[in-house]
Amino acid sequence: MKKIVVGISGASGAIYGIRTLEVLQKLGMESHAVISNAAKQTIEYETDYTVEDVQALATSVYGQEEIGAAISSGSFKVDGMIVAPCSIKTLSAIANSFNDELITRAADVQLKERRKLVLIVRETPFNLSHLQHMTIITQMGGVILPPVPSFYHKPKTIDDIVNQTIGKALDQFEIDARLFRRWDGG
């Protein structure tokens, strides 16, 4: 059974983190969630979920100030981490090892332990600083996976678009959640 850390930052697109937790729960996988204070506001603003609803989807939940939580240590074995959505503030902190809160500390642990780190960066357009920070994270072994939809699977709803992005993120962990129709060459 896979063990995945899910960080939800305050960027627009809280549904990406929520859907990740929903899918991991449905698949019976262990999830460790950190929801930033800004994310709690975004969840309430953008979705019909309460913060408590989202927390109930995870196996374990930590506050962003819990810098000594299990997921802050490399000795706590997990398969990796997804930050969904990943704000530019969080991206910048991870790229610079600025570990003043749990999402960035847990992400730094994934990089130092050579585990998978997937960042669903939610910003557009990108400026040079954003791109440089993405390059740094890629050089450290992280995966930058902005929520850029494909259309070959003919999405009809926002959920179809969200599912395709989460499916691609989970592919990084060899988890096939069957969330979208894969390209088969036409």
From TrEMBL:
Top EC class, one word: transferase
Q: Which NCBIfam families match?
A: PRK06029.1, ubiX_pad
Q: Does the keyword GTP-binding apply?
A: no
Question: Function of this protein?
Answer: Flavin prenyltransferase that catalyzes the synthesis of the prenylated FMN cofactor (prenyl-FMN) for 4-hydroxy-3-polyprenylbenzoic acid decarboxylase UbiD. The prenyltransferase is metal-independent and links a dimethylallyl moiety from dimethylallyl monophosphate (DMAP) to the flavin N5 and C6 atoms of FMN.
Q: Which residues bind dimethylallyl phosphate?
A: Y152, K168
Designated name of the protein: Flavin prenyltransferase UbiX
According to UniProt, the reaction catalysed is:
dimethylallyl phosphate + FMNH2 = prenylated FMNH2 + phosphate
Q: Which GO terms describe its molecular function?
A: carboxy-lyase activity; flavin prenyltransferase activity
Task: Please tell me whether the keyword Ribonucleoprotein is annotated for this protein.
Answer: no
Annotated Gene3D superfamilies: Flavin prenyltransferase-like (3.40.50.1950)
Q: Which UniProt keywords apply?
A: Flavoprotein, FMN, Prenyltransferase, Transferase
Organism, as annotated: Halalkalibacter oceani
Give residues annotated as binding FMN.
G10, A11, S12, S36, S87, I88, K89, T90, R122
- Domain of life per record: Bacteria
Read off the SUPFAM superfamilies from this record.
Homo-oligomeric flavin-containing Cys decarboxylases, HFCD
Q: Which family does it belong to?
A: Belongs to the UbiX/PAD1 family.
Q: Where is the Flavoprotein domain?
A: 2-172
InterPro entries given in the database record: Flavin_trans-like, Flavoprotein, UbiX-like
Q: Which HAMAP family match?
A: ubiX_pad
Entry EC number(s): 2.5.1.129
